[in-house]
Amino acid sequence: MSDASGPMSAYAGTGRLVRLALRRDRVRLPVWIAGAVVLAAAGAAAVAGEFPDEAGRVAALRGVGGNPAVLVMRGTPVGTDLGALVNFRNLLSLLVLAALMSTFAMVRHTRQNEETGRAEMIGAGSVGRHAGLTAALVVVAGADVLLGAALTAALLGAGMPLDGSLAFGAACAATGLAFAGVAAVAAQLFQSSRAANAAAATAVGVDFLVRGVGDALGERAADGIRVTGAWPSWSSPIGWGTHVRPFGEEAWWVLALPVALLAACTAAAFALVDRRDFGAGLIPDRPGPASGSRALLSPLGLAWRLNRGATLGWVIGCGLAGAGIGTLGPAVDEAAIGNTGVADLLDQLAGGGGATLVDTLYAAMMNVFGVLAAGFVVQALLRLRSEEAGGHAEAVLATAVGRVRWVLAHLVCTAGGAAALLVAAGAGMGLTDAAAGGDTGVGPLVGAGLAQLPAALALAGFVVLVYGVLPRLAVPLAWAGLVVSIAFGLLGDVFGLPRAVRDLSPFSHVPALPAAEMTAGPLVALAAVATALAVAGLASFRRRDLSP
Amino acid sequence: MTDAIAVSGLVKTFGATRALDGLDLTVGTGEVHGFLGPNGAGKTTTIRVLLGLLRADAGRVRLLGGDPWSEAVRLHRRLAYVPGDVSLWPNLTGGEAVDLLGDLRGGLDGARRAELLERFRLDPAKRCRTYSKGNRQKVALVAAFASDVELFILDEPTSGLDPLMEAAFQETVREVSARGATVLLSSHIFSEVEALCSRVSIIRDGVTVESGTLARLRHLTRTSVTVEAAGPITGLAGLPGVHDLLEEGTRARFDVDSERLPEVLRHLAGFEVRSLTSRPPTLEELFMRHYGDAVMEEASR
Fold first, then answer.
1. Where is coiled-coil annotated (chain B) (predicted)?
2. For position B200, what pLDDT does the model report?
3. Are strands B5-14 and B58-63 parallel, antiparallel or unpaired?
4. Which structural domain, as residue segments, surrounds residue A375?
């Protein structure tokens, strides 16, 4: 450790902070990494079991490769050997996992420390101005490298070739690094860790969609199997991960892109550290109203005020993303005209309803928006827990506000936000589709968006339940509920899960509008499940102690 | 008239920890009651039970004649609470937080709100995240005292206030007390409790160890005496009830159990006393007498 002078003093204490961060994350990061390894190993085992011979793999890939909806959710096929199929099944979800792990860890060790005042205590010690950010970068980069190495080892262990296994691990590690950089900048810009996390996680979601658009428009090779993502996927760090093409013709140079992004973001983050005051964001606080407006003065008003910024951000983001997808419609239709086999296949996928290719794409995109709505719901409702842990709930519940009324205010706010988000996505898609000459229509797409709402509400019910019963574990359990719902519902076929298990996910019951026929039964059932879970959670919350 | 707060045999456990172990607390209507105890004695836990935020495991708890758990919402309209660690929404202004908390309770007196903001010198247009601990406490105090309620539950409300604000706080408590409100004041500041409270309860390890008027508590304990005579004072050490005797020539200082004071004075009458001062114990001395041995035990461990 250096003296208190000289350029190195800005980094004084970094080593200790690294050890502190590792101590705090000694369970969390290993769980993320172990989860990724299990995913990869299970994927490799499933592929080897289901498609032992080349002919079977070729048939399967021919079946799906021309379907833009599949490309959006799964990425681009790079070949026909076993590794390539593992890539097709698992790489994209592992890239997203690496991105989220890095994002949350980065914010946890930077802005969250500052916001809670822990960094103030630490900063008063013999610790340099850059030490906190440096330590966070070291820990997160280390976790990403470890994740990549563990994935490579898992794939080698499953008998995959060395080149592809290395590229696979490296792609995941590099995507994680890129988002570590993005989150490092977000943590400097936003004053609360909640806002920083939301911004960085939204970046992951938007990135996923942009890459999906690129892959959907991708170019198919002459063999009808390999697909190369179009330009939008080159503007996305997750897209870079897929462009490394592990187990295909590996493009190692692509790994330089996420590393360069990390370097640029790191430089920006350090520049921001030097320019802002401790605890502050970039936007200074201005005086606000000296008294509360009528609209604020109720539990619902307070809940809306607390969630307003995030909700508007999600709604606008989803509206814009929907609008972006709507512009693709005609292009996808043109692509399909030259390929009648694809049209037939899609018709089968959509249940023989005679759906067009573009409607199938929209249905797949609506699935993504359904997941985003569910993510919004989990994030917004976990506000209940942070209000309780932060002592704010105590202040409110010591007034003449009952516990049920307080929770319901947050539920109403969350459900309204989720509905608005889905309507925005559907309306955005419909409007640009119409403007580009498509004929799907705004009404059907808004309806398709709203059809996703009951599934999101089922997760809302689940969050209220875990919050009521196990408040201290509510945060990890709620997110685990979302991850399991995605894994069982949207990726269930990836893991070869039986129907009964996949049916546990609310997403498995949403009709694939606008490609499929509307069926009200499952939606009513989902709403009933949501209500039952919420009622059980409320009953438990009424009986338990408030636990800070 | 019923007591504002009547707690008997209150038990609250958290896992293996017994935070409250048969605690008793009675606060008469209209009284300002001091609630004392070292950190971790169970003061905040008791208050949270009184607010229906925690559920009692055993014992009887009545608040304003009702059950704080099952009738929480109805009772909360009649009380105001200032938590020990005031945590506010960072993106609301102080004024918004005052109005919100007041309104959720059933409404604020606007003129009183303005008067209190002035008295506590609080800028209501600032965001709560920019407030210091003392300013956050002022927000909670203004929100509480601007409400026309019967009962104030204050959990170490002045731990972050400067002496000027401490005076403003005491003035405000006297005002609400004068109009008949009841105040439960948990505090570590003995001068504040001595200045404001007519009765006190002292708790330790979740049990009430003393409760009563300050006068009665003082009577139960010792008086400090300093005496100077023309010649050496002999025989003090042998008198029952005399403690901590310190003799310096013709001066003697000692504590005496209050009920033994008459005998000691009769003994002193046999000497040519030049000066004599006696002082009732301060609250701090009372408190230390109850906890001093615990401190010693800790130290000898």
1. none
2. 92
3. antiparallel
4. 295-548
Would the pLDDT of A532 be above 90? Answer: yes
Q: Between chains, do B55 and A543 touch, taking CB under 8 Å as contact?
A: yes
- Please say whether the beta carbons of A523 and A447 come within 8 A: no
- Between CA B209 and CA B15 the distance in angstroms is 24
Please identify, among A244, A279, A314, the residue that sits at the C-terminal boundary of a domain: A279
From the list A192, A401, A544, the residue facing B73 with the nearest CB is A401
In a domain, A289, yes or no: no
pLDDT band at A352 (very low <50, low <70, confident <90, very high): very low
Rounded to the nearest angstrom, the gap between the alpha carbon of residue A371 and the centroid of all alpha carbons in its chain is: 8
Q: How far apart are the first and last CA of chain B?
A: 48
Residue of B nearest to A403 (CA): B73
- Is A284 domain-assigned? no
Q: Flag if B81 and A287 touch (Cβ within 8 Å).
A: no
Judge if A43 and A67 occupy the same domain.
yes
**What residues of chain B lie within 8 A of the CB of A298, using their CB?**
103-104
Chain A residues at the B interface, defined by Cβ less than 8 Å, are 191-192, 285, 287-293, 296-299, 302, 305-306, 390-392, 394-402, 543-546
Partner-chain contact B100 A391, CB within 8 Å: no
Least confident of A90-99, A112-121, A298-307, B88-97: A112-121
Per residue, the 3-state secondary structure of B268-296, as one string, reads HCCCCEEEEEEECCCHHHHHHHHHHHHHH
- Note whether A449 and A478 are same-domain residues: yes
Domains assigned to chain B: 5-215 (3.40.50.300), 222-280 (3.30.70)
Q: ipTM of the assembly? A: 0.81
Residue B105 at interface with chain A, using a CB cutoff of 8 Å: yes
- A249 and A175: one domain? yes
Helix ranges restricted to H, A190-283: 193-216, 231-234, 237-243, 256-275
Tens-digit pLDDT profile for residues A319-341: 988 888 887 776 666 655 555 55
pLDDT confidence tier of residue A118, bands split at 50, 70 and 90: confident
Specify if A36 maps to a domain.
Answer: yes
| Strand residue runs (E) in B28-78 | 32-36, 58-63
Contact between B104 and A306 using a beta-carbon 8 Å cutoff? no
Helix H or strand E encompassing A71: helix A68-74
Say what the pLDDT of residue A54 is: 85
Lowest mean pLDDT of A1-5, A341-345, B273-277, name the range.
A1-5
Cross-chain Cβ contact B106/A543 below 8 Å:
no
> Among partner residues A288, A390, A395, which is closest to B101 by beta-carbon distance?
A395
> Taking CB atoms and an 8 Å cut-off, how many pairs form between chains A and B?
114
Q: How confident is the model at residue A495 (pLDDT cuts 50, 70, 90)?
A: low
Q: Which of B77, B96, B127 sits opposite A292 (nearest CB)?
A: B96
Query: Which of B55, B99, B105 lies at the smallest CB-CB distance from A399?
Result: B105
Residue B288, pLDDT score: 76
Q: Could you tell me how far CA A6 lies from the centroid of its own chain? A: 42
Q: Can you give the pLDDT at residue B24? A: 95
Asked if A41 and A121 sit in the same domain, the reply is yes
Pick the last residue of a domain from A248, A279, A310: A279
Reported in sequence order, the residue ranges of B37-88 that DSSP labels E, i.e. its strands, are 58-63, 79-82
pLDDT at A350 over 50: no
For residues A442 and A515, membership in a common domain is answered with: yes
User: Min CA distance, A299 vs chain B (Å)?
Assistant: 8
Residues B263, B239 contacting (CB under 8 angstroms): yes
CA-nearest residue to B84 within chain A is: A391
Q: Which of B117, B115, B77, B80 is nearest to B95 (CA)?
A: B117
A122 and A253 both lie in a single domain: yes
Residue A185 distance to chain B (closest CA, Å): 21
Is residue A5 in some structural domain?
A: no
Residue of A nearest to B81 (CA): A398
B107–A contact, CB cutoff 8 A: no
**Both A379 and A475 in a single domain?**
yes
What is the average pLDDT score of chain A? Answer: 86
What domain count does chain A have? 2
Residue A304 shares a structural domain with residue A274: no
Residues on chain A touching B51 (C-beta within 8 angstroms)? 394, 397-398
